[in-house]
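Supplementary Methods S3. Complex input for the flavin-adenine dinucleotide-bound model.
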Amino acid sequence: MPNMSLTKVPAEEQEPLVRNQNFLEVTMSYTPDQAVEEARRCLSCKNKPCVAGCPVNVRIPEFIAKVAVGDFKAAYEIISDTNALPCVSGRVCPQENQCEERCVRGIKGEAVAIGRLERFVADWYLKHGNALPEKPQPNGVKVAVVGSGPAGLTCASDLAKRGYAVTVFEAFHTAGGVLVYGIPEFRLPKAIVRSEVDKLKALGVDLRLDVVVGRTITIDELIENGYEAVFIGSGAGLPMFMGIEGENLAGVYSANEYLTRVNLMKAYRNDHDTPLRHSRAVAVVGGGNVAMDAARCAKRMGAEKVYLLYRRDEEEMPARREEVNHAKEEEIDFRLLTNPVRILGNEKGQACQIECMRMRLQAPDESGRRSPKAVPGSNFFLNVDTVIMALGTSPNPLIRSTTPGLETNRKGCLVVDEDTMRTTREGVYAGGDAVTGAATVILAMGAGKKAAQAMDEYLRGKRA
Ligand code: FAD
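Predicted complex, serialized as structure tokens:
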């Protein structure tokens, strides 16, 4: 008999006012009993709408059926057939807009907690069966992967499993991309990313850190050095600013810089000497996941007051609902329909105030979105010593500017053939945020997978 409860089995969480003082994970994994109980809510629909909602088409009802009978290893094998990083996606995927949005149980009540179940299975496997993979038989063909985010890691893993001699070139000193430098420890523990990177090494992948492709070595030089195909998964790490007065004052950060200092450079730990302003009052500008992460990090770093300034209303916020709720519970002060117009500095050139205007939403435009308009004379000031701009990012121009023949669109994203992820250069493929602009982990993984398949076909074709 299925479990006909209308609500998901709740996952335990740290208390908001405790967790906003530490960097430990906020939400706990299900226990085996909780997982079985939740799995029994799945109706195993014949037409599987949830699978169509998953960008990598995980066979969701099949893995959930295994969880329901307590066969967690079999459940893991089903998930990992199509999803290379389930510990990651189970934690950060926007399931509410993907698989869970299509779940039939969601029509009357809450959808099955597919994300929590995926996370449970992946965490269970990490504890109980996480053997390192065996090194496949090498085929002697060299391929290069630029960037070690979810797109690069997935592409490298799939190519290495097919026997290719894969080298990953990463600009930072640690592999993982946004998974290590952007998403904070309390949402995605870094030990999980490390274990995925260890699997890659066990497959024989050669990881070259501190190599900036386009500076240390170019794509053309990689090809001259015998790499027969190249995958570019260099992400979209270039931050945007508003262009308002005062953005060059001390104490004004891009969210990328702030989060990199906190997460990758471990500014939150006493045994690291990464410099970071000891802020008392912080304004974070933006309404996406990045803004939520920056605001919640600032609170954990000891700020007494953290404002979140967003020019639209809550309904329009692009951040995941869960992250918005968590941020509010952690005492982030949401100032909606609010837009900064200027940052003011003190005599030492440090930010000390932000001037804002109230906004009003207009009728929906052609895209269906309601654009905000400033309310004349509504200016007001907030006393802050730190401002963090979380307004979005775009791909860094370095690779496109040093690789002749590599076409980009007007947003600076690499142009690819959508079926093969091939760029406008033969033998050069790309995927993830470098192609789409800032998007999601699961889409980046899907692109890495698709590219690996196409690169394999291309390289086999060359030898036929
Ligand atoms: P990235 O993860 O950006 O990795 C690119 C890698 O390439 C980096 O390691 C970079 O150092 C390296 N690189 C760049 N240029 C070069 C070069 N020239 N040479 C060598 N290496 C280079 N998505 C979700 O699905 N859920 C979330 O909750 C979520 N939260 C987010 C929170 C934050 C703070 C941020 C910033 C993003 C978040 N995202 C989230 C988006 C998601 O993380 C990205 O869409 C995803 O990481 C893109 O993967 P990628 O592999 O394309 O690029």
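The chain is about 35% helix and 15% strand. The CA atoms of residues 217 and 337 lie 46 Å apart.
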